[in-house]
Amino acid sequence: MEKLLQTKGRIFDIQRYSIHDGPGIRTIVFLKGCVLRCKWCCNPESQEYAIQTMTVDGKPKTIGRDVTVEEVMETVEKDRGYYRRSGGGLTLSGGESLCQPEFARALLQVAKSKGINTAMESMGCAPYEVIDSILPYLDTYLMDIKHTNPDKHKAFTGKRNELMLENARRIAASGKTKLVIRVPVIPTFNDTPEEIAAIAQFADKLPGVEKIHLLPYHRLGQDKYEGLGREYQLEGILPPENEHMEMLKKVVENTSSLTCQIGG
C-alpha cells in the first residue's frame, strides 16, 4: 500500500462537491495529458502533459503540478461523509486519465481499498490491456463516444475512433464495471438525428449498457484558449437550443432501449 500511496502523477485541478461525472456528490481529480485535440475541448490546459503558464484574469497562472496518490487522497477523504450519504465518491477526469495509467490505477485502487466509490471519465483511447488493468478498481466507466464515422472523428479530434469503439465493446463484454456512454453534442460535428441515432444504436448493442448521456456543447472554456495563446477553432458556433436537445433525446429513445438524459 505504501508504494501505491507514493505513486506520482500530474494534475491540474481538484474539484470538490461536484454533482456531475458519476453518482452522488463527488471529488473530481483532473489529470494532465490527452491524446486527442477536440476542437471544442473546454479544458485545453489539460491537453499537454507539460506544466504550462496560462493567463487568467490578466495574470499568469501555473497549470499543472506533480502530486502523490497520498496527497490527492488527503483531499478526497475530507468529504467521505458526503459520499456516504449521497452515494458519491472519486472521479478521475482530464485530459485523458489513461495517459497516466499507473497513477490513475493507483488512485482508484487506494480509493477502493478505503471503501470510496470510483468513476472515470475517459475516451478509452489506449491499448485495452491498460484499460483492463484499471477495471477491477472502477465502479463506473463514463465513456465518451463522439461519433461512429472514423473520418469525421479524426477531422474534429485528430484521431480515428476504431480503437475506442473496440474498447467500448471489450469493456462492456468484460462485465467488470458499469459502463455509461456519454456523447458531447457538438453543432457541425455530430448534432444531426442520424448521427445521434447511429451512436445510440452502437451503444444499445453493448452488453449491460443501460444509460446514455447527451452533453450539450458550451463555450465556457473559450477564454482559456486566449490565455494559452491558442486559437479557438469553433468561434461562432452556438450551443444547441433546449428544443434541439430534447429532439435528440427522443431520437435516442425511439432508436434504442437506452435510458437517455441531457447532461451528465
Outline the secondary-structure elements.
Layout lengths: L1 H4 L2 E11 L7 E6 L20 E5 L2 E5 L1 E4 H8 L3 H7 L2 E5 L7 H13 L3 E6 L5 H7 L5 E5 L5 H8 L4 H13 L3 E8 L7 H12 L6 E6 L5 H6 L14 H14 L3 E4 L2
Parallel strand pairs: 2-6, 6-7, 7-8, 8-9, 9-10, 10-11
Antiparallel strand pairs: 1-2, 1-5, 3-4
Helix pairs in contact: 4-5, 8-10
Architecture overview:
The chain has 264 residues and is of the alpha/beta class. The protein contains 10 helices and 11 strands. Strands 5-1-2-6-7-8-9-10-11 form a 9-stranded mixed beta sheet. The protein is globular, with a radius of gyration of 18 Å. The two termini are 33 Å apart.
In a nutshell, what does this entry contain?
The chain has 264 residues and is an alpha/beta fold.
Defining traits:
264 residues, alpha/beta, nine-stranded mixed beta sheet, two-stranded antiparallel sheet, 10 helices, 35% helix, 25% strand
